Fold these 2 entries.
Entry 1:
Amino acid sequence: MSENSTGQRLAGRTLMMSGGSRGIGLAIGLAAAREGANVVLLAKTDVPDPRLPGTVHTAAAEIEEAGGQALAVVGDVRDEASVEAAVAAAVERFGGIDICLNNASAIALDSTETLPVKRFDLMTQIQLRGTYLLTRACLPHLRAGTNPHILSLSPPLNMNPAWLGKHPAYMLAKYGMSLLTLGWAAEYADDGIAANCLWPETLIATAAVQNLLGGDAAIEKARSPQIVADAAIEVLTRPSREYTGQTLLDVDVLRAAGVSDFAAYGGTGDLEYDIFVDAPR
C-alpha cells in the first residue's frame, strides 16, 4: 500500500460510501480524507432536515476542508439506477474505486406486532438491498483497485436469545448486512478483495441515538463517532488478502493497533453497550 510523502495511509485511494451526511459515516469520511482519500458520498439528503444536521453537500464540503477530495451524489441506495450512476460518477471523477463502505441504515426498534410494515420494508430495503446494490456495482472496480476493501457497519452475529427477541426486524436487517459481507469475503477471497464488518462496542453520540435511544442521557453514555472512524481506518489500511471475513468491534481493532486508553472518545457517565453487544460478566 502506498503512502505519500506526508505518510497518508489512503493517499490516492477512492472510498465510495452510502450515506455519510452526518454521524459515523461523516466521521469516517473525514478520517479517510485526512489520510489522503477521495470520498464519494451517495445520499438522499439534498436539502436540510430540521430534525437532523447536515446534507450530502455540507458533508462533502467538510471532507474537502479536511484535506480530501469529495464528490456528493444525490441518490437513493435502494434504487439500482441511482447506485449505478453514483458508481459511474465516482469512476469518472477519480478513475476507480478502492473501498466500498456500506454505511446507510434505517432503525426502528419496535416489536413484531407494533412495527409498521412500511418500516420493515424500509430497513430491509436500505440495509439489505442497498448494501447488495452498492457492493455489486463497486465490485468490478474493487477487483482492479489498490488494497480493495468492503466494509459494512454491521454487527457481530450474536445469537443470544435476548438480542434475537428484542427487535427481530431490525436484527434481521443488520445481521443480513453482516451475512452478505461475510459471504463476499468468501466469494472474493481469490480476488484479494477484503470484506469485513465493523460495529461500536458502546452507544455512539449521533443524532439517531439522541432522537431514538434516550436523548441527552444516552449521549452521556456514548462515545464519539471518532472511535469508529479511527477503527475503520485501521481496517481499511490492513492488507486486503490477509484481513478479511471478520465481524469486528471498534475497541478490539484499536487495541490490536496499540490503543489502550479510550478516554479521549468521551462518554461522561457509565458507558452503555450498543445493540447486539453483550456486557462483560
Note: The longest helix spans residues 117-143.
Entry 2:
Amino acid sequence: MSIDLLVVTHISSRHQRQLKDAGVRVHMAEERAVRESILAEHRDAIRAVLTIGTIGFSAEEMDELPNLGLICARGVGFEGIDVQAAHARGIQVTHGPGTNAETVADHTLGLVLAALRAIPARDAAVRRGEWREAQYEAPALHGKTLGLLGMGNIARAVARRALYGFDMPVIYYSRRPKPELPYEYEHDVRRVAERCDILVSTLPGGPETHHLIDAALIKALGAHGMLVNVGRGSVVDTQALIEAVRNGHISGAALDVVEGEPGVPEALKTEPSIVLTPHVAGKSPQALDATVALVIKNLTAFAADEPLVTPVMHT
C-alpha cells in the first residue's frame, strides 16, 4: 500500500511508525498553520485523513483536498465529521467500533468506585494528615442497580462487569431492545433514571443526544443517585448537573468527558463530589494499538479498492 494520509489529531511516534511501516506517507497536521504548509506542498497527493470524533472534519476542510477519498475516525466516535457532506462528495468514512470498549469499561467501573467510595477525597485527606476524618462511611457498589444509556460495545462491556463482578441488576435504554442480552430494556430514558442507582451514559454526541441528560432527568435519579458519563460531554447539561449536585438532588457524578473540553467549568473542578478525568477512558496501549491497526486495515482496503472494514453508513 502507498497512500498519503493527513493526520489532524495527535498520534504517538510509535503509531506514526506503525502507519509508515504499512506503507502510509504520514503528514502530521495537528496545528492549522502546519496543515496549511503541508497542503501547499501535498494538497493533490493526500487521499485520506485521520481524525477523531471530537475534532471531526468539515465540508469546508474536505473541499481543500481535491483528491480526498477517505476519512478515518480513530475510535468509535465520528460526530464531528460531516458524514453527509463526505458522502455527497464521494468520500468514504470509517470509524473504530469495539477497539477500546474493554478499556473504557474498566475505566468506567473505576470512576464509579472512585465517586461512590469518595476515593479521591479520602486520598487527599490522608495526605493532609486527616486519617480519622477520612474514615466516614460511604455506600458499597455491589447490589446497586446500574442504568445504561446506550447498549453498544462499551455499554455491553460495562454491563457484563457490573452484573458478574458486582451482582448489579442492569437496565438500559437504546433505540431498539437487544433481546439476546440478559438485561432489562426500558424504552424511556427517564424510567431508567428513576429506577437505577447509578446512571452511566455511553451515548455518542450529536444533535440527537445534545443535553439528553437535562435537569429533569438528573433529578429523576434521586438524592442517592449518581451520574457517570464516558460517552460525549454534550450529552449532559453541565449547568444542570452542577446545580443538582450542589442542591443535593443527586449524590455526585464522575465524568471522563465534559462539554466544551478541554475547557472545564470552575464549578466542576471545585465540587468535591464530582470526579473528573481528562477524556482518557479509552486510552491504554492495547486500545490505541487496536485503533491504529483498524485504521491501517481500512486504508489498505481503500487503496486496493476493496470494501472497507468499518464504514460509517449514510446518515
Note: The longest strand covers residues 46-51.
